[in-house]
Amino acid sequence: MRKTHKKFNFLKNSEPWLYYIRTVFVLIFRYRHLQLFKISLEKLDCSAIKQIIIIENQDCYDLWHQFNLPGELKTVLTFYRGHDVQAKAIHHLIDRLLPEAMIIIFADYDPAGLKIACTTPKSTHLLIPQLTPELRAKSYPDDYYKQHDQAAFLDNSMDKNELHGWQDIWFNIKKNKFSIKQQHMLAFNALLYTVERKSIILQKG
User: Fold this and answer.
1) How far apart are CA 88 and CA 170, in angstroms?
2) Distance between CA atoms of 54 and 103, rounded to whole angstroms?
3) Helices 148-159 and 167-176: crossing angle, nearest 10°?
4) DSSP readout, 136-182?
């Protein structure tokens, strides 16, 4: 039997609305127990940063070390994507990194998640789950259909040949109407792996 994460075991048999309640609960719990650290970008040696991972959901950022990760990503600097000011700060950090730095995006496996990856400046890799039958069964087609704006964006990107190495991911999401949440990837201990967007990015210099 596949190992599951005990904090998200309830998701194995949950309805979509329970997912949102659980997310809110986790956020409240985490904010009560987290220590927050801030550091100025000017104090970071950005030339020494070779890779970063940007995570879509706050609760999954908090539990990042419990995901089934490739060994080489376990010590990579990670950031919560955030919104507004925090999102702008992430973009400023990316601007300061060397051109050959790997910008890895970890998001939900759905149109919205893929759009996040496509619109993050200088993104080079997408972290996606191995799609086991158990994980496929937890996709939310209704949620997929709510993401028609993101789907239209991706279709347009496809027409402009901007998806590159992520074309097959979009084909798969679109064909199967996938909307698989990061929380289910954790609950089912899904093996994560990276897919490169555009090899030329990593060949500069």
Assistant:
1) 26
2) 8
3) 140
4) HTT--HHHHHTTHHHHHHHHHHHHTT--GGGHHHHHHHHHHT--B-H
Residues 79-85: contacts with CB under 8 Å, at least 24 apart = 79/52, 79/53, 79/54, 79/55, 80/54, 80/55, 81/54, 81/55, 81/56, 81/107, 81/116, 81/120
Residue 151 near residue 163 (C-beta atoms within 8 A): no
Parallel, antiparallel, or unpaired: how do β-strands 77-80 and 125-129 relate? unpaired
Tokens of 160: 């402009």
H or E element, residue 21? helix 16-33
| Kind and range of the H or E run holding 122 | none
DSSP state of 65: G
Token representation of residue 202: 């990593």
- The mean of the pLDDT values for the chain is 82
- CA-wise closest residue to 5 among 27, 22, 29: 22
- Which tens digits make up the pLDDT trace of 49-69? 999 999 999 999 999 999 999
